[in-house]
Amino acid sequence: MKRYTQLTLNERENLFNMRNQNYTFLEIGKILGRRGSTISREYKRNLHSSSELGYLPDTANILAKGRKARHGTKISRYPHLKQLISARMIEDRYSPEMIAGSLRGSEVSISTEAIYQYIYSKEGQKQKLYQHLMRARPKRNLYYGRKTRSDYGIKDRISITQRPIIQQGEFGHFEADLTFVKNSKKINLLTIAERKTGYLMAVLNDSKESENIAIKLIEKLVNVPRKYRKTITFDNGREFVMHNKLKEVIGINTYFCHPGSPWEKPYVENSHALLHRFIPKKTDAKTLTQEKVKNAIIKLNNLPRKRFGFKTPAQMFANEKFYQPDALRA
User: Are 313 and 305 in contact, with CB atoms under 8 Å apart?
Assistant: First the structure.
């Protein structure tokens, strides 16, 4: 069933004009895609205090907003939502979208936008809830560019434009990248995301030398049956110059994004933002261990995702035919 929403100012203006042309409430409702009872209630509730002026759209809009303000937001009417939002964000690392999705069908649901408004309200700012968002921005809608990088002359580099079309629901297409933390330009996390399931693998490296990266990629992907090792997509970092080794050893085809186009491998890019909820960028690289990385990946793969109807990547991966409990270990 479609949720009720208040009339917009534009709808109120149309209501005003059509009433002046002697349209009935039922006729107006059909034109506006509303019930006739909704139009009738709107008209009667928002009549101007002067009977001579009757219904005026601007006045009706002000009156409606005034009633909404007196009622307060849903979060103010249900204080337990504040504790739930804080706990889910701080302890469970849920995003606002994940919180809203997990509450669907419950006694008190809430929209993603309402959660964002609470995060950036005075109360939310006081708790610094924004620090637990993917990009931890103190203000909304701040965007930052990334520097364009060349292709570094990678031998036998095949552009993403030549990658076969990936069919919807097709397992076996991967994206890989490196991400770093504080105090190190060498220690890194090599991440591999499977596109269909969103499942992420990661390994802690003490070097970003291309030979080391190629070996680690092979060690991770060899656990996937040969017929499911279809493609893997990289950016143009020099750490991937030995990409041919993957095709030689495990038979997976390699492709590269256009220079300066990280959005062409969105699954691993978005996974980095989630991963840094559990391993913040400010983490001292010297304190990282493989066990800490493994625990972070397990938590990440058990976060509900909107695109899966709020199932988790772990659940989606477990549905694959070849799945075994130890396959693609974190």
Answer: yes
